[in-house]
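Course assignment 3, question 2. Fill in each field.
Student: A.L.
Task: Predict the tertiary structure for the chain below.
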Amino acid sequence: MNEHAPSPRQTVPDSGLFHDEAERSHTLPASWYYDPQIWRAEHEAIFYRTWWYQCHISDVAQPGDYHAGHIVDQGIVILRSDDGELRGFHNVCSHRAHPLLEGEGNTRLVVCPYHQWCYGNDGTFRGARGRKALEDWLPDNADLKPVRIENYGGFLFANLDLGAAPLIEQAPQLLMDMHECCPSLGELVHVERYEREIAANWKTVIDNNHECYHCDANHKTLMQLVDYDNKADWSDDGITFSHKVERKALDNGAYALKAQDVAQDSLFAYIWPALVPLWFPGSPSAVWFQIIPTGPETTTVRHDFFFTHKEPTEQERHFIDYIVNVLVPEDVGLCESVQKGLHSLGYTQGRFVVDRDHSEFSEHHVHFFQKMVRDALLGL
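Answer field:
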């Protein structure tokens, strides 16, 4: 990271009437959702210091397997080396900064496509033409620069901060909840990915996903599937929270279920800063909903679907279609409308509706998220 970058405290505007207690707090100022100054500060204060989901462990199962991904604007790569260890690196050549790998694949030798500098799949520099001219610099300086990697229930996360606390230490309860909801968690494999661009700030998208106050009016088929009426069991766990929700009806407007196909109920969760892991009623499965910041007012949303087999059943295909063609479009419209409204001269800060005894409409977890944003940006 750039040691000369200004600290977030020096660059971030005041948070106005935001308060530590949700019941007394206004929301974050509207400008925090489009101000380029906030967007720049978020990189150092949040994006480069937190854990970001990258891929499933089954994607890099064999020696030589790799997965190239990103933490916002920073390219990284996860490699399983010949000794079987998983390692993470910045995806950039030490010579002249060309990216090294794209997508997924298998390689025993990483070769830069620009000048053919070579690295082992353990990140060590192996060779380059003209290397004798650099004897005072090679080889250690040329090794790929490390990135922290952690396996969290079979899902691989990366962190650019080499001194960051392990994810498992920051979120132990959620991992147990994941296994309780889906006993077949260890058998899941990545089956399908869906991506969509949203004309909204990443925080706008997350705010929308942290409450169900809007669900009765905007997600009518979801409310036929799950029972939020005072039956949501919420819990906070460090940098995460989750809530368990019972299914309401097998025959519903979302996707029909047969009793023999139901191996799990719902678990809807959150991992700071931008991941929403989801388990819906049905066969053993998971959806990892990633909110990927791309600009002050643009976001990529990515849904990765996991099942215990590579080819979805008919019921699982109906489930995927429901998420992609019904639930996501409903939320996209809401988020893009809110983003426009944040620019209104008639709005600066709103208020949270907080009723912790009625979690089906309480917004205290929106405050949970916004407080983490404020604390990170102001260095609190």
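Instructor remarks: The two ends are 20 Å apart (CA to CA). The chain has nine helices and 18 strands.
Grade: pending
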